[in-house]
Structures are given as structure tokens and as C-alpha cells.
Design a protein that fits this description.
mainly beta; 6-stranded mixed β-sheet; 5-stranded mixed β-sheet; 3 helices
Length: 456
């Protein structure tokens, strides 16, 4: 049997096992999430019920209410949510964490409807439920599982089939690739001049799913900018968006006039205009660039890029929890890993949703340096099977006391840098451990990839 075939077979087995673990975990969470008691057949539907919104669920998963009734909607999560009845005018305001609102349903005729959170990406993440407007005597048994049906009427075999089908489609090909190195023009005085074009593009997030992406230079994430400490830099930004923009250099030390916060530090770059940022890099950095003006629209939709300045100081020769980092360590790969959870791009790694996410492929014994960047709206615990991650830097600053973790929590705006030694051959699953960021009733999706170690 060939090495490639052997690795592929190991991968299928590992992915299938992980799917089972994640699915069982999802069922346990669903069973313990404080759902409502099942309605007894023949009992009258209530005139009002309580609904909780969170990341990323609507509880209960099926709502049964009498005609003319209402929903008392509470945002029990940590970010903004709303509740909308699809195809109708019935919707709440955007609720901040802890807020609540009574949603009157008097305009709805008896029947079955779908309710969702309209924040981009939240419906796909699991914030969808069934609403039954039903008169007395028409209640029916239900539970809070995200497939919206009862245990007795669920096609478990079909759920297994679609999960296996999505897993076996990995890795799937899609058009477009982000994080591509950006070339520069070297000016006579040694300045490195880069060009960025802000534009709206068609982007294939997963096979066959084309969305409206907001991008730099036609890619999501935007092109990777690598610099050395002491570089004189010019970045010429052309705005082809329908609205004004700017560029903030998050984590990069620049003069205040170049910080990219319109209209405070510069004028807004209007559609069709250009603006040139000028600065000199003064220290190593794991940074990122993104719009600040209406960033809540642009970033989740893909307008985000990575900027690396100099070399990160690594804990060479240090022993951490009985594991020693070699003095002569050579980095085989340096990988930016951009996390997203909202906007048109939705739950994704480097602009792609499983099975279109790109696997990390390394040889046994390789050391890989990975930088996590969270451009989303919620925290992501990134879990790697098979071997731990040595957290060596936070937001580009080397840690005095690095630590090994198998799950690294990355909050919005944060950057974590980790060293990974490819110790064991096989296909090792790599995913966000918030279960609804990795699986849905249609199968595996979103923030899942693999770390493939080849045994040379």
C-alpha cells in the first residue's frame, strides 16, 4: 500500500471518529441546555413562551404558541442577536447581551414558520428554529435538538450518512486562495511600496457556495505582507468599494497620522480615491491590517490581512513541562490561520469552510510555527488532535513563560503564536471546539481542517 493511500485511510478513520465524538458532545449539550418540557399531544398551545438566544442556538429548538400569542426573547449570549420570523415583518430589535423584548405574533396565521438570528453567519452557525402557530389541541411532542424533531421521528441513519458524506469530501477544491505573499516595488531610496485594492468580489467559501466577499486584491484573507525591522514602507490603497474606507495597522507601531482611523487621523478614502500610508517598521510584530471605518461590515465579510514584521523570538533551548525546544530548531513552515465566524464568509479558517479548508501537511519531526488571528465576533478554542501546541507569543509579544496547550482560546482581535512539532504520522483533526462551529445537521462544516503528518 502506498504511503499516500495509507495516510488517506488513517485520515478517514480519524475524521470519522472525531465526527462521532463531536456529535455525541452536541447531543449531551443539547440535552443539558435547559430546554422546555415536551408539549403533550392534545394540550392547548401557550399564549406566550420564553426564548433564549446564545452563541449559536435558539432555545427551545421548536416553538409552539397559540394564534395571537407572543415570544419573550432574551439575549442570553455574549454578543448581539435578534430574532426574526422568516418571510414576515415579525422581528425584534437587535438585542445586546442581557436585553429582552416581547415579540407579538398577532399578525401570523396558524402554520409553521422558521425563526432565525439575522446577524450574518449566525443562522448557519445554528441559530435557526421552527415556530408553530397552533390552536388548542394541536400541540405535539418535541425537544430542543438542533434538527428540530423529536427523538422518535428523527432519521438517525440519514444524519449519519450526511455526516460521513461531508467528512469524506475533504479536502475539497474551491476557487480562490487567500494569504498569498504581496510583492512590492523597491523605490530608489529603499522604500518598499505595496499596493492594496479594496473591492467586492465573488468568493467560493465551500464547494458551490458563492458569496459576496469584501476583499483586498481579490483574495480572502487579503495578501500577506512580510517586512523586516527598519523597512521604510508605503502602502498605496485604492478604494473600489461603494463606501468610504481606511486601513488600520493592528499591532504595528506607526505614527498617529498613519493609524488609519478616519476621520480622526486621516480623511476617509472615498470610492474611487487612493491614499498612501507611510511608516518605518521599528520592532518585530505579528500584526494585521483591516478597515476601521464601518469595520463591523467589512471585516466579517472578509476584508482583513496579515502583516508579519521581522522574526519572532522563540524559546530555543527552553524546557517546558519536560519537553525541550531544540537550540538548533528550524521552522519548516510559518502559517497564518485567520478565524472568522460572521458576515458573508461565516464560520471559516483562512476564508474557507470545511471541506474546502486547506490541511497543514508536514513531515514527521518538522516544527511548524502557526499564528492565529481572530477577525470574528466571538472567542474560538482551537483544538489540535495528536500533539500539543506550545504558546510562545501573545499579540506578537514573546511570552516569558511559554506553555503547552491542546486547546488555545483566541478572542476577537487577538493573535496567538504557537509552535507545533509533527511528532506522529497520520491525519490529525484540527478544529474549533465550539461544537456548532464545526458541525450542523447537514454534516461537518465551518472551522475544521486537518494536520497531516507524513512518515518519511
Amino acid at each position: 500500500m502506498s504511503e499516500e493511500r495509507s495516510v488517506a485511510m488513517i485520515g478517514v478513520s480519524v475524521m470519522a471518529a472525531v465526527a462521532l465524538v463531536l456529535s455525541v458532545g452536541a447531543l449531551i449539550i443539547g440535552a443539558s441546555s435547559g430546554g422546555r418540557t415536551a408539549d403533550l399531544a392534545g394540550s392547548p398551545a401557550p399564549s406566550s413562551i420564553a426564548v433564549d438566544l446564545a452563541e449559536f442556538s435558539i432555545v427551545p429548538g421548536e416553538l409552539v404558541v397559540a394564534p395571537g400569542g407572543s415570544l419573550t426573547v432574551t439575549n442570553a449570549g455574549s454578543i448581539d442577536h435578534d430574532l426574526s420570523v422568516v418571510g414576515t415583518s415579525a422581528t425584534t430589535a437587535m438585542l445586546r447581551p442581557g436585553d429582552d423584548e416581547v415579540l407579538a405574533l398577532g399578525s401570523l396565521e396558524p402554520g409553521t414558520y422558521t425563526v432565525i438570528c439575522t446577524v450574518p453567519g449566525h443562522e448557519a452557525g445554528g441559530m435557526s428554529a421552527s415556530l408553530v402557530v397552533s390552536g388548542p389541541g394541536s400541540g405535539e411532542a418535541t425537544d430542543d435538538m438542533d434538527h428540530g424533531g423529536s427523538v422518535t421521528d428523527t432519521d438517525w441513519e440519514e444524519l449519519d450518512r450526511v455526516m460521513d458524506e461531508t467528512i469524506l469530501a475533504f479536502p475539497a477544491e474551491t476557487a480562490g486562495l487567500g494569504n498569498q505573499p504581496l510583492e512590492y516595488e523597491l523605490l530608489a531610496d529603499g522604500t518598499k511600496r505595496f499596493e492594496l485594492v479594496a473591492e467586492i468580489i465573488e468568493w467560493e467559501v465551500e464547494p458551490g457556495k458563492i458569496v459576496e466577499g469584501w476583499a483586498y486584491n481579490g483574495q480572502i484573507p487579503g495578501p500577506l505582507i512580510r517586512l523586516d525591522v527598519g523597512d521604510k514602507v508605503e502602502v498605496v490603497v485604492t478604494n473600489n468599494l461603494p463606501m468610504g474606507t481606511d486601513v488600520h495597522w493592528h499591532g504595528i507601531t506607526v505614527p498617529n497620522s498613519q493609524d488609519g482611523v478616519a476621520p480622526l487621523t486621516q480623511d476617509l478614502i472615498k470610492p474611487g480615491d487612493t491614499f498612501t500610508y507611510e511608516f518605518t517598521t521599528v520592532e518585530p510584530a505579528i500584526g494585521m491590517y483591516h478597515p476601521h471605518h464601518h469595520g463591523q461590515i467589512k471585516l466579517p465579510n472578509g476584508m482583513f490581512g496579515v502583516m508579519l514584521v521581522g522574526d519572532l523570538e522563540l524559546p530555543l533551548g527552553m524546557t517546558v513541562a519536560n519537553r525541550t525546544v531544540p537550540n538548533d530548531l528550524v521552522i519548516a513552515q510559518e502559517i497564518p490561520m485567520v478565524l472568522n465566524d460572521a458576515g458573508t464568509i461565516g464560520l471559516s479558517l483562512n476564508g474557507k469552510s470545511f471541506p474546502a479548508t486547506a490541511p497543514v501537511i508536514a513531515n514527521k519531526g518538522d516544527w511548524v510555527l502557526m499564528h492565529y488571528f481572530n477577525e470574528g465576533l466571538t472567542i474560538h478554542p482551537m483544538h489540535l488532535h495528536g500533539f500539543p501546541q506550545l504558546v510562545v507569543a501573545k499579540d506578537g509579544f514573546p511570552l516569558v513563560a511559554p506553555q503547552w496547550e491542546d486547546t488555545v482560546n483566541v478572542a476577537p482581535g487577538e493573535r496567538y503564536s504557537v509552535l507545533i512539532k509533527a511528532e506522529h504520522a497520520g491525519l490529525w483533526v484540527f478544529h474549533c471546539h465550539i461544537l456548532t462551529h464545526a458541525e450542523r445537521k447537514e454534516g461537518m462544516f465551518g472551522m475544521v481542517s486537518a494536520f497531516i503528518v507524513l512518515d518519511e
